[in-house]
Write a structure and sequence with these properties.
With about 190 residues, the protein is mainly α. Helices cover about 80% and strands about 0% of the residues. The two termini are about 20 Å apart. The relative contact order is 0.17. About 5% of the residues have low confidence.
């Protein structure tokens, strides 16, 4: 899928990619090893997406949208719950019953979060920001995803400035671990 455009377009593209990954996982038989590979890809995408939102989307919501602090706090709480489930999923194999349960729980939580962002938060942000500001935020989100972690770190800071300072270093370590273990390579 094509990435680019303003922050809303960029994040909506991410949402469709995540939806597709859930569909691919669910289409495979229980126990199929490819489900683990897809779950790893799903984890990478969700973590990178969450980090970029926490670094750029939610601070913009706090700044520009009336009641933005409460909105941002709710979305960050959603991220924390998803990240906790992703960490638990990391230790499961596709044949483990917990794997399917976690995929189902994740899909439900992520779908609710996406619905909330796309139908409430994004329209509020679009009304409150100029097209130029939204475009600039889109660029910042794309850059943040390039250096973001690829594995869940539930205890890591999720608000500026600590998240912006630590995420690139954690991301570098995660990408090194991924390269050494072969995680993320298509077979």
């Amino acid at each position: 899928m094509g990435h680019g455009g303003n922050i809303i377009q960029e994040l909506t593209t991410d949402h469709r990619e995540v939806d597709s990954l859930f569909e691919q996982i669910e289409a495979l038989p229980t126990g199929e090893q490819r489900r683990r590979d897809l779950a790893d890809e799903l984890t990478r995408e969700l973590v990178r997406h969450s980090v970029a939102e926490e670094e750029h989307l939610y601070p913009a919501v706090r700044r520009y949208v009336d009641g933005g602090d409460d909105l941002a706090d709710k979305e960050i709480a959603d991220h924390s719950e998803v990240e906790r489930m992703l960490k638990e999923l990391e230790g499961c194999e596709p044949g483990d019953g917990r794997f399917d349960t976690l995929i189902t729980q994740l899909k439900t939580s992520v779908a609710e979060h996406i619905d909330d962002e796309e139908n409430r938060l994004f329209p509020l942000l679009a009304d409150a920001c100029s097209a130029d500001a939204l475009q600039e935020l889109g660029e910042k989100v794309r850059m943040a995803k390039e250096t973001a972690p690829t594995r869940p770190h539930p205890a890591a800071p999720d608000t500026p400035p600590a998240n912006r300072l630590l995420a690139p270093g954690v991301g570098m370590v995660d990408r090194l671990r991924d390269a050494l273990t072969g995680r993320g390579r298509q077979g």
